Amino acid sequence: MRRCSAVLFASQMTWRGICWGAAVTVLAILPLAADSQGSGEALPSPQSLPVVAEPFAVVPEELPPPAESETEAARAPPVLVGNGQTLTATWADGLVLRSRGDDFAFRIGGRVQVDSSGFTAGPGPGAPPIEGGLNPPLTGATNFRRGRLRASGRMYEFCDWATEYDFANQMTDYNASFPTLPGSGTLPAMKDLWVQVRELPWLGTVRVGNQKDPYGFEHATDSRWLNFMERSFSMDAFEGPFNDGYLPGIQFFNQAYDGRVAWYVGEFKNTANPFGFANSSGGSETVGRLVMLPLFEDEGRRLLHLGVSGRTMGLASLPTEIDPVTGRPGGPMIRAVRFRSRGSIRNGPPGPLNSIYADSGLLAGDWQNMIGLELAANRGPLSMQAEYFGSWLYGASTTDVDLINAGQQPPPGTPLGTVFYQGGYIEALYFLTGESRTYDLEHSRFGRPLPHSNFYRLRDGRPGGRILTSPGAWQAGVRYNYLCLNDGDVNGGVLNGVTLGLNWLLNPNARIYLNYDFTYRDFVNAFGGNGSGGVNAFGTRLAFDF
Question: Most buried of 9, 114, 259, 511 (most Cβ within 10 A)?
Fold first, then answer.
C-alpha cells in the first residue's frame, strides 16, 4: 500500500498558539477600525435592493451642537436605533421584507435538490463488504439530496439572525463511530442557527450559535451553487466529517481594504452530531482563516484569491458499542476520530445509505491539527480553484470498532504515534455563454452565478407565430480529486477521481447538473479483502432555491 508523506508539526498547544497568535497579529497590523464592516449571511447588500420612496429617517436629520456640559449633554435628544418597523416586500433572489432604513428585515426561503444516479463498478468495489467491497453496496437511486427551509433577518440595525433546518436526512447520533448504522428516520437537522452583532470596533462581527467553522474554501461556498454535485473527498474526510461542517460555537470575523483582506477566528465544540448537541466531555476546537485578494478587478471578473486556514482540536467522545436492540450506545466512551469519504456522486440522502469508498476505522488519539491552503482565480468566463488539506492525529492507536468498513491496520490497541492524512483537488470551469462567476467579498468565496439571460421558450404572441427561446447559461467543468488515508500500518485507502460536469442555469435560482465521475479506489480492508478497482458514476440534479 502507498503511504502519505508526513511533516510533523509542533505540539498541540503550539498549534493553538499559532491560530490565536495569527489573529492577534492581523489585528495589530491591519487598520480594522470601527468603520470596517463585518459580514452577515442573513441579508443581501442594501445596494442590491430597491429603495422605498416614502420618507424615513433612521436618526434625526438635525442634531443640536455638542453640549458644553454634562447637564446639556443629558438634555440632548438621543440617537434613535430601531426606527421604522414598517416592512416593505421585495424580491432579491428570494422574498425579503425590510424597513426603510434597514433596521429591520425578514427573509424566508429554502432549497430543494433532487438527485438521480447510476453506477458500474469493477470486481473489487463490487465485492461483498467482508471481502473489501463498498459498504453499503452501490445501487442506482433517486432521492432528495437537500430539502431545507430557512428564515433569517435583522433587528435593531446591528443584530442579525438565521435559522435553517434540513429535512432530507437519515443521520444517526453515533455515525462517527458506526458510519453505516441504520438511520433513525427522516429527522430535521440543524444547519445555521445563530445570532450575530455586526460592525463592532476591531472585531467586526461576532456570531454565536450553530454555524460553519472557517476552514476551507469549498466548505465556505454555499451548496446552492456548488460547481459539481458534491464537494471533494476532503469535505467528507477533513472539512465537515459527519456533521456537514456545522458546529456550535463563537466566531469573530472582519475585513479590510474593501474586503481584499479578511480574517476569521473562532472557538467551537468538536461534535459529529448533526442536531447540534455535544457531550460536555467532547473536545474544543480553535479555527482560523486568513484570505487575501492580490488581484480584484471589474467587480471580481478578474481576481486571484489566496487563503490559509487551520484547526487545532481535542477529539470528541465517541461510543465503542451499540446495543443491537435499542440502538443506544454502550461500552466505554473514548476520545477518537474516524476518517472516511463517500463518492463524488451519491446514491442516497445524507447518512448511512451512501457507499463508503475509503475508511481509516475509528482511531483513538490525544489531539488533532489540520491545515488548509486555498487558491482560486477568475478571468472572465474561465475560473479555477484548488485546495490542499493535511491532518495530524497525535497519540493515535487502533480500536476494534466497526471493522467491517475499516481499511487494513494492526490489531486493536496498537500504538501508532502520529498519523498523517492528506487530500486535495483542482478544478476548472468555463461559461460557454460568456458569464463570469461572482465573488462574495463579505464571506471570501464565490457567490451566486447570474445568467446573462434567463431560460424561456414562448411564442411571439401571434397564432402560429415564431417560437422565441433564450438558452439561460451553460457551464462546463472538470475536477481532479485526491485523498490519501494511508500512513504507516494504518491504510484507510487512496482515492483518485476525475469528474466531468455540465451545468445548465435556467435562472439565478434554478439549475440542472449533469455529472460523470470515474474514481479509482486503492483499498484493502481490515480482514485482508482487496476492494481495489474503478467505479463509474453518472448523476443528475435538479436544484432550486427561493
Answer: 511
Neighbours of 230 (CB within 10 A): 25
**How distant, in Å, are the alpha carbons of 40, 338, 369 from that of 416?**
43, 15, 16
Amino acid at 349: P
Phi/psi-derived region of residue 276, left when phi > 0, alpha when psi is between -120 and 50, beta in every other case: left
**What are φ and ψ of residue 217, in 5° steps?**
-80, -50
Provide the percentage of residues in the chain whose pLDDT is more than 70: 81
pLDDT class of 256 with cuts at 50, 70, 90: very high
CA dihedral sign of residues 86, 89, 95, 99 = negative
Q: What would the DSSP string read from start to end of 108-165? A: EEEEEEEEEEEEEE-TTTTS-GGGT--BSPP--EEEEEEEEEEEEEEETTTEEEEEEE
- Of 224, 250, 241, 378, nearest to 315 by C-alpha is 241
The one-character DSSP state at 314 is P
**Mean pLDDT, all residues of the chain:** 84
DSSP character for 59? S
Q: Kindly report the pTM of this predicted structure.
A: 0.84
CA distance 232 to 225: 14
Distance (Å, rounded) from C-alpha 517 to C-alpha 531?
18
Distances (CA, A) of 49 to 111, 195, 355, 514: 21, 23, 44, 33
Q: Report d(CA 131, CA 146) in Å as an integer.
A: 32
Contacts of 138 (CB under 8 A, 6+ apart): 119, 121, 125, 126, 347, 355, 535
Helix/strand/coil for 525: strand
Does 288 have pLDDT greater than 70? yes
From CA 47, how far away is CA 61, in angstroms rounded?
Answer: 22
Of the candidates 111, 518, 174, 114, the one whose C-alpha atom is nearest the C-alpha of residue 352 is 174
Count of beta carbons in the 10 Å neighbourhood of residue 543: 22
